[in-house]
UniProtKB/TrEMBL annotation:
Top-level taxon of origin: Bacteria
Name of the molecule in the record: DNA-binding transcriptional regulator, LysR family
GO MF, one annotated term: DNA binding
The HTH lysR-type domain, residue ranges: 4-61
PANTHER family for the chain: HTH-TYPE TRANSCRIPTIONAL ACTIVATOR TTDR-RELATED, HTH-TYPE TRANSCRIPTIONAL REGULATOR
Species annotation: Kosakonia radicincitans
InterPro entries found in the cross-reference section: LysR-type_TF_proteobact-type, LysR_HTH_N, LysR_subst-bd, WH-like_DNA-bd_sf, WH_DNA-bd_sf
Pfam families the record matches: HTH_1 (PF00126), LysR_substrate (PF03466)
Keywords: DNA-binding, Membrane, Transcription, Transcription regulation, Transmembrane, Transmembrane helix
Bilayer-spanning residue ranges: 229-252
Family per similarity comment: Belongs to the LysR transcriptional regulatory family.
Gene3D superfamilies xref list: 3.40.190.290, Winged helix-like DNA-binding domain superfamily/Winged helix DNA-binding domain
Keyword Zinc in record: no
């Protein structure tokens, strides 16, 4: 559609709704003659008369009435586009509700919040941590950060950077027991494993061996149902455990944990931010997503 015809439809919609060229011109910030000329060009192109004009009134013809509702819909769509653009430019503000599991909340989200809050002081954070899958719409959640493969849904998503899963032990434990050089060497070592709260199943330890990925479930004397407890037990010298590198980064940096079997660590790219379509144009949501992707 030519630009000239589009402006004619908008002028027609506004003039028909307000009942005069002058009122339409005022609402569109143009001159009455510009409205008149646009509508005349539109009538010429369509080959019909849209208005019956008198010195005192402007009345839609039968053909004009048939087309006017469609033209109004076009005008509403144009105005909605303008409002979306304004919201997109708006400064992030209000309460941002974020849902995540406890490990992701502690190790990925909480560390980036101080800088985010400094950049966007009008945004308040409501961080909700649980291992249960939340319904974003029912619980009014703006963003959820999830680990694992995403089920097909209407939610929008963005993948966060990949991470590694590997084995760790404390220097005290390694002073007593020489570290294994191969995953098979875990036999005979003390290990700490995780039991999933939602399924009751034990975590299967993945290893990259050559071109293959293998899994094993070590015979562990200590089994816990929270990953934070796994890490705490490893750091206390209870044995060897497996964790994501982002969860133990500060402990490794402080030399409280030591990576072992590093050549067999596996990479995962299954952490995603998800949000509902209704939050697409929310400035706080977009700002937080961009911030997360820059700093995790």
């Amino acid at each position: 559609m030519a630009f000239e015809r589009l402006t004619g439809l908008i002028a027609f919609a506004r003039a028909g709704a307000l009942g005069s060229y002058t009122a339409a011109a005022r609402s569109l910030s143009v001159s009455p003659s510009a409205i008149s000329k646009s509508i005349q060009r539109l009538e010429k192109h369509l080959g019909i008369t849209l208005f019956t004009r008198t010195t005192r009134s402007l009345v839609l013809t039968a053909e004009g009435r048939e087309l006017h509702e469609r033209a109004l819909r076009l005008l509403r769509d144009a105005e909605e586009i303008e409002q979306v653009a304004k919201r997109t430019r708006a400064e992030p503000a209000g309460t941002l509700r974020i849902a995540a599991s406890l490990p992701i909340g502690i190790h990925l989200i909480a560390p980036v919040l101080p800088q985010f809050c400094a950049l966007y002081p009008k945004v308040k954070i409501d961080l909700r941590l649980s291992d249960h899958m939340v319904n974003l719409v029912d619980e009014h959640i703006d963003i959820a950060i999830r680990m694992g493969e995403l089920a097909d849904s209407s939610l929008l998503s963005r993948h966060l950077p990949a991470y590694q899963i590997g084995c760790y032990a404390s220097p005290e434990y390694l002073a007593r027991c020489a570290p294994p050089e191969h995953p098979n060497g875990l036999i005979g070592h003390q290990t700490i494993n995780l039991r999933y709260q939602n399924t009751g199943q034990l975590f299967r330890w993945p290893f990259r061996v050559g071109e293959r990925e293998i899994e094993m479930v070590p015979s562990s004397a200590v089994i816990v149902d929270a990953s934070e407890a796994v890490i705490a037990a490893i750091a206390a010298g209870a044995g060897i455990g497996m964790a994501a590198n982002f969860m133990v980064a500060s402990l490794v940096r402080d030399k409280k944990l030591v990576p072992i079997l590093a050549d067999f660590a596996v990479e995962r790219g299954n952490i995603s931010a998800v949000w509902h379509e209704s939050r697409r144009s929310n400035p706080a949501v977009r700002a937080f997503l961009d911030h997360m992707l820059k700093h995790v």
